[in-house]
Amino acid sequence: MLEKRIIVCLDVKEGRTTKGIKFKENKDVGDPVKMAETYYKDGVDELVFYDITASAEKRKIMIDVVRRVAERIFIPFSVGGGIADTDDMREVLLAGAEKVSVNSQAVKNPSVIEEGASLFGRQCIVLGLDAARDPGMKNGYRVFINGGRTKTDLDALEWAERAEVLGAGEIVVNSMDADGTQDGYENNLTRLISTNVGIPVVASGGAGRPEHLYDVFTRGKADAALIASMVHYNRYRISDIKKYLKDRGVCVRIVS
Amino acid sequence: MNNGSTGVVDYKAGNLKSVETALRHLGASFYISGDPDKIFKADRLIIPGVGEARTAMENLKQAGLDTAIIDFYNTGKPVLGICIGIQLLFESSTERNTRCLGLLKGTVVRFPETIGLKVPHMGWNQVMPVKKNYLFSGIPAGSSFYFVHSYYPKPAVSDYVLAETEYGIKFASAVGCNNITAVQFHPEKSGKAGLKLISNFLNF
Question: What ipTM score was computed for the predicted complex, to two decimals?
Fold first, then answer.
């Protein structure tokens, strides 16, 4: 049986991991390569690196991080942040990432999904989707871009469905309402997207305790769950979270 | 520790980087090449890749690598196919009706919609050996490996099947015949178990 994946997310700014709350107030939490290695040894299934470096000339630092991660870590990982076109995609894939994640740029120019999928394969193209509750929208959630700062007219489910048709191979659904709260994932939003698309959905935002992962895998129907603070501050170990899930009947990969 | 040099077939399909870093990590003596003569001269061969069957076959043919791989197989030296690399070894794939290398009898087909599961099959899944093979030596039965694929091999000879995986249906996730071994998953991205499998191949 296919196992539920636990993915650790590392926000990288100028070569260092940072962590913010509700997309703001970023604090330095360590060296991304060393952290990735620790999580790998403890049995994480996948990693995501978001480059939140503001300036284009500092992107080289991120490529160097990607290269160093690829040399030490033999599990899949994706890279997002500032990916605007297929040249950017090629650069991170050649540096050793399995997948690239597009978010704001895909909203501004949806054909980037299509072009990326046809050049590198759908399995490479991840759509990052930031959504917040909005009763005014058709299915109750609105898409935001630019790190949550800019409102769009897109309904979250409709955008997810369109991205699938365009060629996205996976969708990371990040709840802006839950992000950084550590009160649990937005299970309704996750289930809404996951049960209506035919590609894997990764829940993001709000993880604080192992039961939150249990909830999002069972009630939220997530295929994978993104975590950050839970492990960045050594509150939990990946292996402990997995043991908790396995004991409750969730199919996860246990690394001996 | 590794005997001889491993050739990795470069046919412009997919990302070779992860196979390359895994081989380097294991201290293998290897080279990546799209030149049929160099590929033929290897001591063992890895056919890696992510991608689509028809494009992959067209790229192989254009470079003359299809015959190089068949000639290599006929020398009896070990071959390891990975992901699209396992699929190309069979007779044909229903992915854009592609005629493949035909070294193994059988076809490659898409996961049926009737399984009610998401396609591609993407993520970690358990691999259950059904017979003893050097490839899985030292790897606990039921270890998980990383998969990303929409098509899977359907061998015409049940004896080929080395291991099975369940995703709505049971399919052959590893096959072997004579000097060929091939896996549907990505050992180069499957952590410790995956690295062990590659090192088993290198040391055979």
Answer: 0.91
